[in-house]
């Protein structure tokens, strides 16, 4: 029986809070980082002891084909020192074989450049630890907008950080951008795409701004201090991104993610790809609704039929681990119907869609047995298409994704 191959590690610290952010992350808690890292290592040991005896079931071939993955997310994992990251990776090794893993670290250009007198030395140190994928939060190339967002870097600094990462040998670099930003016009966004496409990164994640009620930006918008583009403009920005990335030969493989297609130009003679794109295997594990573990404050793991949620706040998390137990705040037991629904609405995010084999292997029922009438209705509405391989969103369905997903929730 296989063991769980995917691990998310939450690092809930930031230098300061960005105006749009409602993630579980805290500014001005730098004095807790050392204790947090120690607690995280203890939690990892507890997880290793529990999961060693609990092999997973219902693994599809598509999930089994993924690399093992370790993902440092946040927050700002690049606030950790190399020594702290090494300490964590040593503890991880008992859970996931780090030598064979895709290891991603989310990094903020502001901390990589601002915290280190030699940013390249820090990035080189990450590579030496085995980190082989960097995800840089760039968000915008418009400095006044970056200031409104509360980001701690300029566009030029983001580019410098990207170049430094490439210089020290990172090849798998993701760049995060947001569209639908305060004051942003379609022309500005297209100009941003023109520029970033010259950078030649292997992978991009583009998200439309979600105005979260708990984020400071919400009040600024409500009070008329800043204005956001309307829904039509945001849809036009998304369509512009689809066209510009296609023209630049990137593969749009998930609703919000693009990977460089040229790495896939290798053919086995019948036109089928035999080389993997620089997809993010960790996120693919989520979209395939694979089982994964998670550690850290507020992290949640999914080991069907259970989903667990860790204690949110940093001090409560550290205290719970010091008290000797797993820092779990709640556990939800999932029904088979929950597994079917999640496998569907997560899988439809992938542009190749949900394959019949994957669904049956993961869920134990066929797509039609689980969702026959719903699929027929969405196909009739032109939102889904179906063939013998599986079901997927049509281009129209991709624009109206939420309307499709709500039928499976
Ligand atoms: S750096 Fe990222 S996690 Fe931290 S406040 Fe900004 S958006 Fe949120």
Describe this structure in words.
There is one protein chain. The strands form four sheets. The chain has a nine-stranded mixed β-sheet, sandwiched between helices. The protein has 17 helices and 17 strands. It folds into two domains: 282 residues, Alpha-Beta Barrel (TIM Barrel); 69 residues, Arc Repressor Mutant, subunit A (Orthogonal Bundle). It is of the alpha/beta class and 409 residues long. Helices cover 42% and strands 19% of the residues. Helix 1 packs across helix 12. Helix 8 links the parallel strand 7 and strand 8. The structure holds iron/sulfur cluster (SF4). The site of iron/sulfur cluster has 11 residues, from loops. Iron/sulfur cluster binds next to loops.
Quaternary structure of the protein = single chain
**Named CATH architecture of the largest domain:** Alpha-Beta Barrel
List bound small molecules: iron/sulfur cluster
Question: Rounded to an integer, what's the Rg over CA atoms?
Answer: 21 Å
Q: Which fold name corresponds to the CATH topology of the largest domain?
A: TIM Barrel
Instruction: Please state the structural category.
Output: alpha/beta
Show unreliable segments: 265-275
Rounded average pLDDT: 93
Number of domains: 2
Largest sheet: 9 strands, mixed
Count of helical regions: 17
Strand content: 15-25%
Give the termini separation: 30 Å
State the fourth-level CATH superfamily of the largest domain: Aldolase class I
Question: What topology, given as strand order, has the largest sheet?
Answer: 9-10-8-7-6-5-4-1-11
Fraction in helix: 40-55%
């Amino acid at each position: 029986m296989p063991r769980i191959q995917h691990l998310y590690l939450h690092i809930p610290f930031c230098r300061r809070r960005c105006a749009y952010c409602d993630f579980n992350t805290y500014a001005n808690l730098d004095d807790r980082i050392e204790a947090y890292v120690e607690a995280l290592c203890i939690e990892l040991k507890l997880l290793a002891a529990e999961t060693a005896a609990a092999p997973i079931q219902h693994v599809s071939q598509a999930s089994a084909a993924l690399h093992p993955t370790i993902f440092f997310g946040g927050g700002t994992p690049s606030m950790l020192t190399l020594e702290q990251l090494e300490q964590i990776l040593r503890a991880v090794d008992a859970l996931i074989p780090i030598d064979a893993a895709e290891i991603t670290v989310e990094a903020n250009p502001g901390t990589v450049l601002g915290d280190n007198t030699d940013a390249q030395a820090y990035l080189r140190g990450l590579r030496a630890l085995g980190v082989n994928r960097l995800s840089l939060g760039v968000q915008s190339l418009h400095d006044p907008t970056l200031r409104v967002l509360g980001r701690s870097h300029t566009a030029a600094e983001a580019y410098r950080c990207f170049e430094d990462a490439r210089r020290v040998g990172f090849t798998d670099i993701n760049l995060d951008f947001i569209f639908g930003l305060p004051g942003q016009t379609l022309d500005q966004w297209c100009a941003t795409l023109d520029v970033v496409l010259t950078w030649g990164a292997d992978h991009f994640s583009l998200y439309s701004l979600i105005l979260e009620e708990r984020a400071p930006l919400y009040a600024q918008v409500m009070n008329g201090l800043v204005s956001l583009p309307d829904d039509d403009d945001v849809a036009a920005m998304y369509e512009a991104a689809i066209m510009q990335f296609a023209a630049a030969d990137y593969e749009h493989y998930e609703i919000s993610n693009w990977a460089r297609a040229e790495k896939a130009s290798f053919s086995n003679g019948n036109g089928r790809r035999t080389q993997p794109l620089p997809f993010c295997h960790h996120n693919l594990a989520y979209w395939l609704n694979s089982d994964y573990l998670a550690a850290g404050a507020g992290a949640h793991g999914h080991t069907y039929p259970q989903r667990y949620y860790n204690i949110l706040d940093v001090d409560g998390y550290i205290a719970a681990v010091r008290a000797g137990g797993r820092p779990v705040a709640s556990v939800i037991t999932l029904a088979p119907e929950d597994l079917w629904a999640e496998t569907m609405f997560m899988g439809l995010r992938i542009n190749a869609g949900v394959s019949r084999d994957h669904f049956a292997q993961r869920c134990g029922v066929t797509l039609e047995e689980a969702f026959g009438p719903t699929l027929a209705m969405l196909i009739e509405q032109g939102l889904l298409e179906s063939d013998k391989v599986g079901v997927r969103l049509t281009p129209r369905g991709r624009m109206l994704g939420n309307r499709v997903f709500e039928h499976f929730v």
